[in-house]
Amino acid sequence: MKKNIYQALSLFVIGSGIYATCRQNVIFLIPLKNTKLLEWIKIDIHYHSGNIFTYFFLFCLPDALWYLALLLIQIQFHSQSTIGKFLFYFSVVLPFILEFMQYFGVLLGTFDIVDVSFYLLTLLIFMIWKKEILF
Fold first, then answer.
1. Section 67-76 average pLDDT
2. Sign of torsion over alpha carbons 38, 28, 17, 111
3. CA pair distance 71, 57, nearest whole angstrom
């Protein structure tokens, strides 16, 4: 199970690195806004004129990595208790809930069906990868 924790931390760091270098307008970077550190690590990628791979790298990949990290962390609690199972299954549906809350205007942000598709793909990969633990 320690392996899952290390994998989750690695995925979280990689996803955060993409945000920190390429999408510095995200909420968790607000405390660092206008600092030398963010200026130093910023990579300007003009995604508006980019292709599908640029879009995937900037918008879908970090979210998918964070989602997979969340699932790997939560799997530690999957079989321990009823609350643990609830937290795991809540983690499974959380990104979908957040995305649809954006769609209905409950949360700020932009609903993106491509994100939903990548969440589904990530969940499918996770279930195939960890099937011996889940079933």
1. 92
2. negative
3. 20
| Residue indicated by tokens 């809930």 | 97
CB 121 within 8 A of CB 115: no
* Residue 77: CA count within 13 A, CB half-sphere: 16
Q: Quote the mean pLDDT of the chain.
A: 84
Taking phi first (over 0 means left), then psi (-120 to 50 degrees means alpha), and beta for anything else, what does residue 34 get?
Answer: left
Report d(CA 129, CA 47) in Å as an integer: 32
Question: Domain-by-domain residue ranges, the chain?
Answer: 2-134
pLDDT for position 16:
83
Quick one: angle between helices 82-103 and 61-74, nearest 10?
160
Tell the burial category of 77 from Cβ atoms under 10 Å away from its Cβ (0-12, 13-18, 19+): middle
Q: Which helix (H) or strand (E) holds 73?
A: helix 61-74
